[in-house]
Amino acid sequence: LNTIEQFVNAVESGLKSCSERLQTSHTSSVNDNSSISETNTNQSPLMGVCRIGLLGKSLIIKTDRLFHIVVLCAEWPTKKLFQTIAAILSDNFDDTWKNKIQIQYQIDNETIELQTNTEEGMMYISIAFTSFSIQQQDKSENQSDELLSKINCLNALNSILSTRWFQNQVSTRQHASALVRCLRYKTKVSTNWKSLSSEPIEILIDYTLSQSLSAVNAFRRVLEYISGGLVLSNGPSLRMPWQTDSMKDVLENLTYQERNDITQEAQMGLRLMSFGQLMKWLEQSKIHQLMVSLPKRSLSDMDDQIRVKRQCTELE
């Protein structure tokens, strides 16, 4: 964690230096145009940096190597600003990091990718750009080709809102972060659970701990929800609590087979937990034979799907 913190601090410091450099450049250019107000002359196009995802939520586990940062801009970020930051960032790193960080930028995702080699292996930071002003834009207004993609910017904004929701709502609950990390570790070692992202886990943990349960009972309740068909295509689904006006399901990207694999393995975990053998479930190698012995859930078994949906009606 110390290595990660040093890497992130170096990148954030470099971005701050870029902001000051751009502000100086902006002020110089504005001095040539007296019609622009003094307020604008002192404003940098970069307003700040937000740690998002696992980094901002302090949910890092030992296998994590990719971390995300969002740069908040005063206005809708342009492709020119994106390219400028990518070009000058390396010159603004501290001397101890200048030769240790490699920079690439992804045109499709409109992100700057940084990588460095540490004692723990390669580590990566992805920098995205966005602005709160994008939410105020008229939907019918055509987007200029000079601006970064609206979808990419809105995705970055959603990540900021998700992180703030977790910091204010979930991390304050006792055992919440530890339980999320535990289930995240499961997604790393289990083939069946690898498609389950962190956000659905966070929402489930928040829901269960809001019922004043102990850590063990909360863990069991999460497995009960998933075993009962929560992630199945005809299940109740999970909404984004930080987007109250959104009907988007955080599980919508899962395929039918992934949904059934996640459900089946949760059922196995619930059985092992009943016999005090939860570690066998967390250590994937020890339950492989048990999973092989169980038949795959049939997608055409409608009676079974109706039954499991009935078990989790309390979530609806």
Overview of this structure, please?
The chain is built from 12 helices and 5 strands. The protein is of the alpha+beta class and 316 residues long. The chain is globular. β4 and β5 form a beta hairpin. The protein has a 5-stranded mixed beta sheet. The protein folds into 2 domains: 169 residues, Beta Polymerase, domain 2; 135 residues, Poly(a)-polymerase, middle domain (Orthogonal Bundle), CATH 1.10.1410. α5 packs parallel to α7, α6 runs antiparallel to α7 and α7 crosses α8.
Keywords:
single chain, 316 residues, alpha+beta, Beta Polymerase, domain 2, Poly(a)-polymerase, middle domain, 2 domains, five-stranded mixed sheet, 12 helices, 5 strands, globular
